[in-house]
Write the structure tokens for this entry.
Amino acid sequence: MVKIAVLVSGGGSNLQSLIDAVESGYIKNGKIELVISNKADAFGLKRAEKHGIKSLFMNPKEFKSPQEYDAHLAKTLNASGINLVCLAGYMKILTKEFIDGFNNPIMNIHPALLPSFGGKGCYGLHVHEKVLEYGAKVTGCTVHFVDYGADTGPIILQESVKVSGDDTPETLQKKVLVYEHKLYKEAVKLFCEGKIKLEGRIVKISGEN
Ligand code: GRF
């Protein structure tokens, strides 16, 4: 059984889709053990509580630096035997202390087709604003492993979404989010089934060419 921890800072609709996927049996070999937030009022924490999942608010103010915070976070996750961390709207830059300190893979979902519209300043509604400003005709979402860079890790799955002439950042965000909910649970399912292998920065999925 793969023990999953989800890190959230906000609404946690992606967390909810993972919870639902585990509860419905779509994800069979995984269990969400723990939800952690850097924000006391993150609705994601409430979602976890409602489903009997252990939730934890880790207050950044109680640590001397982001590095200390991250080292403690990694230690907490390792001590709980977590095999996979899923970032789901976690709005805190991860330091090397977390990436090096946590023993297992970390996944993230990004609301665009990486490597476009990722990195610095590309979060929340800004991503969709940039897509529209650029005039891209297609956007989408990406699930990837986390490395030291911002949105630069190996790509696991992507899904495209058409941009319409009358889209606003808000409508685009809403459209993309629907696909995010499908894509993240698919990636986690594949991981839990042991079907994801990494060759350099290339993700190979068993049963696919
Ligand atoms: C999603 O768009 C995700 O791609 C991004 O942050 C947003 C989180 O939304 N990383 P939610 O909290 O899961 O509803």
